[in-house]
Amino acid sequence: MQSAAIVAARIARARHTLVLTGAGISAESGVPTFRDAQTGLWSRYRPEDLATPEAFRRDPALIWRWYEWRRGLVAAAAPNAGHRALADLARRVSLTLVTQNVDGMHQRAGSPGTICLHGDLFRNICSITRLAIEPEWIAAHGDEEPPPSPHHPDGYARPGVVWFGENLPQDALDAALAAARRCDVVLSIGTSGMVHPAAGLPGEAQRNGAWFAEINPQRTALSDGADLVVADTAARVLPAIVAALSGA
Ligand code: APR
């Protein structure tokens, strides 16, 4: 796979590599991408209409049930060859992995220090104080949708993810920007490049002299700016890059 060899050669010469991933890297694990059509009873809703503070205020039970459904989907899925290849890559080169995904697949595949820009599907926080709520509390109040918050009398448990209109965790964003400013290679994998500030990371890296490759079967908002577009899936390209790196 010629493109994988080109990317591998660039990574081999790089002092540091930044990898940005989106929902597409989890598609081959059977986790629907964010803009995939929703299935079953959720098909009549658009994610953009559910993943908002307003939607939660309006109908906390509906939003809690939607996230419980998504947690079930993700828990039943497993990291794929793309996730595993990135974990392998981190053992071979200096790499920062930044993900927009909340599915925890990179962490389950063994990627160390994954920067989660949009939070974690399996964490719960108080809807008012945003303080973390422990799994034991959720289990003890599992019959309530959503469970009440232990941190505030008017609060509920809500998923620890970034909703539309909410700010990203500043420490995660700062770490991602720092990596963009010091990397020599930046890879964008499985993201449509439609949501900022995540989508701005490859451009920020290029402005600091980095070489930018995109891995995605479809063209995206980032494709025109890429130095190389690999029009293929993550589960095929990433293992080929690792193989090329190890000279296999
Ligand atoms: N390998 C690589 N890319 C793939 C694969 C695959 N096997 N399958 C699909 N893709 C690509 C699609 O072509 C698409 O460009 O993954 C991308 C998924 O795009 P989105 O569904 O828009 O997901 P993402 O880019 O992660 O969304 C970013 O937007 O909605 C918010 O917070 C949400 O984190 C999400 C953010």
TrEMBL record:
The keyword Iron does not apply. It is found in: Cytoplasm. This is NAD-dependent protein deacylase. Substrate binds at Y67, R70. It is an enzyme of class 2 (transferase). 2 residues (Tyr-67 and Arg-70) present in a large hydrophobic pocket are probably involved in substrate specificity. They are important for desuccinylation activity, but dispensable for deacetylation activity. Its EC number is 2.3.1.286. Pfam families: SIR2 (PF02146). Residues 1-248 form the Deacetylase sirtuin-type domain. InterPro entries: DHS-like_NAD/FAD-binding_dom (IPR029035), NAD-dep_sirtuin_deacylases (IPR050134), Sirtuin (IPR003000), Sirtuin_cat_small_dom_sf (IPR026591), Sirtuin_class_III (IPR027546), Ssirtuin_cat_dom (IPR026590). Its main location: cytoplasm. Keywords: Acyltransferase, Cytoplasm, NAD, Transferase. PANTHER family: NAD-DEPENDENT PROTEIN DEACYLASE, NAD-DEPENDENT PROTEIN DEACYLASE SIRTUIN-5, MITOCHONDRIAL-RELATED.
